[in-house]
Predict the 3D structure of the following.
Amino acid sequence: WKSCILDELRMGTPMRPSEIHKCLPEAASRVLDIQLKEMVEDGLIVKTIFPELPPRSEYQITELGKSLLPIIDSMLKWGEEHYDLFEKKYGNKRE
């Protein structure tokens, strides 16, 4: 899910965890939370916690994370170019 999270954050606009979860409803919340934590530890995204009640946090892509976007774009292009192959094998599950 890390590549999907980076893709959602690519515009540079900070997103709250709930917004990321809404963009990726197929992923379990716990899985996304673990992925977000690992990505912060790896320096791909940054987490900002606002000192308010209730606490609010946002995630934003870093320059290191942005450096992965061309690779993600290449994978997306490859998937689009070979869509027919997988559509035949798995059916039309694309939404």
The chain has one domain: 2-90. The domain at 2-90 is CATH 1.10.10.10 (Arc Repressor Mutant, subunit A). The mean pLDDT is 91. The first strand starts at residue 45 and ends at 50.
